Amino acid sequence: MHPILLRRARPWMVVLLAVAAALLVLLPARSASAHPAGTTGVFVTIQSDAVDVEMQIHKAGFTAATGYDVTDQAALDAVSENLMTFILNRVSVSDGTSALEPTVTQSPELVPVNGEDAIVTTVRFSDAGRSIEGAIKLDYDFILDVVPAHQVYVALVSDWANGQVAEGDPQVVAVLGGGVTEVTLDRTEQTPLHGFFSVVWLGMLHIAEGTDHLLFLATLLVVAPSLAVRASKKTGWGFRWTQPIPLKKTIGRATLIITSFTAGHLVTLALVSLGLISFPTKPVEILVAVSIIVAAIHAFRPLMPRGELLIAGVFGLVHGTAFATTILDLNLGFGEKIVAILGFNVGVELAQLTAAVLVLPLLILLSHARAYSGFRTVVAGVAVVAATTWIVGISTDQESALQPVFDQIAQFPIVFYLALVAIVVALWYFTRIRQSEPTQLEASRR
């Protein structure tokens, strides 16, 4: 960045940071939990040929029902076989055809849930590989036969054929207790299209709520209205950004950035989702954060002409691997997985295009103002800080220190967007380039 432009931009950088900080402080925090503390959570996943039931059993209720007061995993392992026999005599699942046979797929584990110890185990109910048909009936009498006042929250995680495909907190469908021990899940509107449209929506939500993916895309798009030119002796080595550039060229650059990112993440989304390749989760999450830092460095000062296309394509492969974990978590059959990959990718692209349509006009407008260099620097700086906190959080198995901030922004996207519009318009109005002033691009050609 040219030193004179940097000095001019600094006051606006301070204004941007101050307004953003004030907005983040004023936004209220939100919290959510799968089920209240002191209760049991039962999570149902309906697949094409099986029903998975994950039980998060409150330890106090578990002790009252079984007489076992386990204090650690070793004590739980010692009674695990007897425990599962005890549970399976009190938990059953049937579909519209017949009762389903249980198979333990996750042995009992003692883990904290909602701040309290719980026994977590998963049982799969199926019938010789045949398809699941009709309504699903869950009969859950564990603990309730001894402590009727105990509450059991039953939540539906996903049901592809019935259009229930969720990410995050599952949908609570019933609360058992007080003599009620059964719940029937109605599945009268089964069609593959329901699953397709649901996973399209899931893909859109994944981008809308995925701060890391949005920040990566935003850091790439912020250079779209600029052009990388070779730096002069006065401005230093390598390349520097100059703007504005013609509108058609800006739109073309943004289109190529999104296309390159799409091509990259589509490849690994398909390969990982289909089980053809696999990678450890933690390194992938760290690489996603690294991709943001690389894009931010490029926004600070161009690494090479059109380097944003290379960054988008190469690191799109990494982001696609992260996307694939969502498809894998749905536990779909092969045919359903193919449709899910297509639908999820359509949703991701729709969300990306929506974000570009909302943000690109603001960037184009501001590129005709002296404050744009400072604005681009602030965006890059925020990206580096956020990505660094993600790397630290992932490496230490803790939540990012800034995650509550991004949660607040996700809860009030319209407020945040309108604030961004106000900031951009104000910056453009006070620092816009007059017709009599040469643009950076014109000046660089003289």
From TrEMBL:
Residues 1-34 form the signal peptide. The chain crosses the membrane at residues 214-233, 254-277, 283-300, 309-328, 340-366, 378-396, 408-430. It holds the Pfam family HupE_UreJ_2. It comes from the Bacteria. InterPro entries: Put_HupE_UreJ. Keywords: Membrane, Signal, Transmembrane, Transmembrane helix. This is HupE/UreJ family protein. It comes from Herbiconiux aconitum. The lineage of its organism: Bacteria, Bacillati, Actinomycetota, Actinomycetes, Micrococcales.
